[in-house]
Amino acid sequence: MLQDLFSKVKLRTSSYERPRRQGKMEIPKDLMYKCPRCGKVIFMEEFVQSNKVCPYCEYHARLTAQERIHLVVDNFTLLKYDKGMKSQNPIQFEGYPEKLYYLHRKTGLRDAIITGECTIMGQRCCIGVMDTRFMMASMGSVVGEKVTRLFERATEKKLPVVLFTASGGARMQEGILSLMQMAKTAGAVARHSRAGLLYITVLTDPTTGGVTASFASLGDIILAEPKTLIGFAGRRVIEGTIKQRLPEDFQSAEFALQHGFVDRIVPRDQLRRTIGQLLRLHSQTSGKEADQ
Amino acid sequence: MTAWEHLQIVREKNRPTIRDYLPLLFEEFVELHGDRLYGDDGAILGGIGRVGGQPVTVIAQVKGRDLKENQQSNFAMPHPEGYRKAQRLARQAEKFHRPVLCFIDTPGAYCGVGAEERGQGEAIARSMMEFMELKTPVLSIVLGEGGSGGALALGVCDQLAMMEHALYSVISPRGFASILWKDASKEQEAANLMRITAEDLVRFGVAETIIPEPAGGAHMDPEKAAGNIRAYILETLPKYMQIPIAKLLENRYDKFRKVGAFTE
User: Which of B79, B117, B140, B170 to mutate to test the interface with A (most CBs of A within 10 A)?
Assistant: First the structure.
């Protein structure tokens, strides 16, 4: 009990506090947006109206899962799965439960993915959307389990899966259990695939590490947003290995397309239509294999 | 014994590698090369062997015993073509109803320009997906280091065994310390915290068996270590070969399906 008390105090006073504004120039924080890629500054209103795409360099800024759902899913059609699922602390990593709690309070999410069932342009499908605000959308037990259940339910209901990926990789704080989620999700994708059902992956910024090396790379059709970072190893790790700077476009969506690992790059404003079209093109054939 | 102490044994210069074990484990062995797509990766060795009279497909990560061997095997860090070679040989094993033995011994998949260009992520993901559905028994044994996704690509199996001192982790202790604590020198502390020993993995339900090593580690008596591995294979393989394929695949899926720590 006493420990609980202390952990709460610690939480309140810990470094997770929002940084205080510094300097004298009090520009309201959300009036302008500075693109992290090209460094140019635009009005926030303009930025939001263009679906958070930088008008100068076409960088597709990261969206929250809610924003993504709003952009792609038909209004009021989303039925969420496994809303209350949350991680335990399998290797007793210090500060991990506090961090999960803090992020829950901050984002409203329980972990880094929202899954469910919806329609897109009238086409029924199962959907998963990862959210980088939650520990860079790293995959631990919850992400692994929710993705697995998503594919299992889709297989049962004979529905296609549309999955928006974004991740820093496996969640180290959960040790070996995180790693095993890669095999678990790959297995669930395999069963869904064997049932003759469609799986569309949409790679969004950044899709890396253990997520790239599992379900993100296993779509029948792999789409990507422009300028998205897509890769297995971290850029700095590679630079450290080869002892030289990598070109700017290394591990970009365009790079992945050029090397044959992405089917299409689709700008954000066309994403909903493209996914709807692909779903429609499979609506007569999906799941037929399983019946034969 | 702490994870750190296990790690020192695994890093022992004379620790036997798959090349030492091959003649001790198999009555005969024919090495096969290439992924039929791009090249042949020296970090993953493949071929057909015979153990107790039974032909088996062997897929193994290769640690070098000296600098020259390590250059050839890239310090056991596979490129995508290594994983694609593994997939090809696994499918071949399925075709001829041969069981597959995978030997894991890698710090991780290679992090480099070519590896990214040729889809390291895709190669690992595809390996896991193919092994999950492979219609023949698969046994994996971690010989020394099981580093991250690069190890797991050969670790989707019906039963996972760990050598007594072997380790298996989501990231190297050094990487763990440098990313989570921004201090790579806390490697020892990380190793002991991460729960990466054979015993830990059995407790988590990730590994099923621990293969004993001679006192002090496999390098003290490689023949004895090989004898233990061989005894394990001879005892375990027939059990899995009797299970009907549909049931085998169901069990394999469930083995991974149940791993995770969450509440609802």
Answer: B170
Asked whether residue B261 is domain-assigned, the answer is no
What are the angstrom distances between the C-alpha of A33 and each of A27, A44, A106?
A: 11, 5, 21
Residue of A nearest to B151 (CA): A179
Q: Report the distance separating Cα B22 and Cα B19, nearest Å.
A: 5
- Of the candidates B133, B170, B260, the beta carbon closest to that of A170 is on B170
Domain residues for the domain of B198 are: 3-254
Q: Dihedral sign, CA of B231, B237, B242, B248?
A: positive
Q: Do A246 and B113 touch (CB under 8 A)?
A: yes
To the nearest whole Å, the CA of A79 is away from the closest chain B CA by 17
Superfamily of domain A62-291, CATH level 4: 2-enoyl-CoA Hydratase; Chain A, domain 1 (3.90.226.10)
To probe the interface with A, which of B111, B156, B202 has the most A CB atoms within 10 Å?
A: B111
User: Is A212's CB within 8 Å of B125's CB?
Assistant: yes
| pLDDT tens digits along A95-146 | 999 999 999 999 999 999 999 999 999 999 999 999 999 999 999 999 999 9
Which residues on neighbouring strands pair with residue B147, listed in sequence order? B169
Q: Which residues of B touch A148 (CB under 8 A)?
A: 257
Measured between CA atoms, the residue of chain B closest to residue A185 is: B257
Residue B263 lies in a domain: no
A136 touches chain B (CB under 8 A): no
Residues in chain A, total: 292
Q: What CATH number does residue B33 fall under?
A: 3.90.226.10
Residue-range domain boundaries for chain A: 29-59, 62-291
Per-residue pLDDT of chain B (264 residues; tens, 9 = 90+): 999 999 999 999 999 999 999 999 999 999 999 999 999 999 999 999 999 999 999 999 999 999 999 999 999 999 999 999 999 999 999 999 999 999 999 999 999 999 999 999 999 999 999 999 999 999 999 999 999 999 999 999 999 999 999 999 999 999 899 889 988 899 999 999 999 999 999 999 999 999 999 999 999 999 999 999 999 999 999 999 999 999 999 999 999 999 999 999
Is residue B134 domain-resident? Answer: yes
Total domains, chain B: 1
Choose the closest CB to A84 out of B171, B260, B264: B264
List CB contacts of B3: < 8 A, sequence separation 6 or more.
B167, B173, B191, B192, B194, B195, B196, B197, B200
| A272: nearest Cα among A63, A111, A131 | A63
Q: Is the ipTM of this complex over 0.90?
A: yes
Asked whether residue B259 is domain-assigned, the answer is no
Find the distance separating the first CA and the last CA of chain B, reported in whole Å: 36
